[in-house]
Amino acid sequence: QAQLVESGGGLVQAGGSLRLSCAASERTFSSYVMGWFRQAPGKVREFVAAITRSDIARSGSNTYYAVSVKGRFTISRDNAKNTVSLQMSSLKAEDTAVYYCAAGRIVRIWGLPSEYDYWGQGTQVTVSS
User: Fold this and answer.
1) CA angle (120, 64, 91) in 5-degree steps
2) Phi-psi region of 81 (alpha: psi -120 to 50; beta: other; left: phi over 0)
3) pLDDT classification of 56: cutoffs 50, 70, 90
4) Contact between residue 2 and residue 117 where contact means Cβ atoms under 8 Å apart
5) pLDDT at residue 59 above 70?
6) CA geometry: angle at 19 spanning 99 and 27, to 5°?
7) For residues 15 and 35, what is the distance between their CA atoms, to the nearest angstrom?
8) Residue 66 to residue 121: CA distance in whole angstroms
9) 97: which residues sit within 8 A by CB, 6+ positions away?
């Protein structure tokens, strides 16, 4: 059973940058789709970004983003270190939320939380305006 641990959250001013990391314990990490979701107080958990498994296609992984973060956030994975990262730039107050890392063996709909099998405990990101 995979265990995911997020890190890198904190307080940042609007316009600033922050990098989140997620360390996975699963030795077959490269065979998982990895995603980032976020949940603000009183709101449902929403999709942020996903990166496909990298053990099949010779071209490597594909990435997908929510419209609200496209162009500002970048998801990447390092299979040698079993980590997935989310580089966040041009942060806005509305990006404030708890950010969760997720892993799924078979993910057909990137933005659907129920498609993912494992979740981290979350890390708080607060953007001050």
Assistant:
1) 70
2) alpha
3) low
4) yes
5) no
6) 75
7) 23
8) 21
9) 38, 39, 40, 43, 125
pLDDT at 119 over 70: yes
Tell me the three state secondary structure of residue 15: coil
Question: Taking a C-beta distance cutoff of 8 angstroms, is the pair 103, 27 a contact?
Answer: no
Tell me the average pLDDT across 35-62: 87
User: 5 phi and psi, to 5 degrees?
Assistant: -130, 115
Reduced to 3 states (helix: H, G, I; strand: E, B; else coil), residue 17 is coil
Tell which wins on pLDDT, 46 or 55. 46
User: In a 3-state reduction of DSSP, which class is residue 85?
Assistant: strand
What tokens does 21 get?
Answer: 């990391």
Q: Which residue, 73, 83, 74, is CA-closest to 32?
A: 83
- For residue 41, the Cα-to-chain-centroid distance in whole angstroms is 18
Q: Which two tokens stand for residue 81?
A: 């270190």
Contact partners, residue 59, CB within 8 Å, separation at least 6: none
Average pLDDT, the chain: 93
Instruction: Give me the residue label for tokens 């953007």.
Output: 127
Checking if the pLDDT of 57 tops 80, the result is no
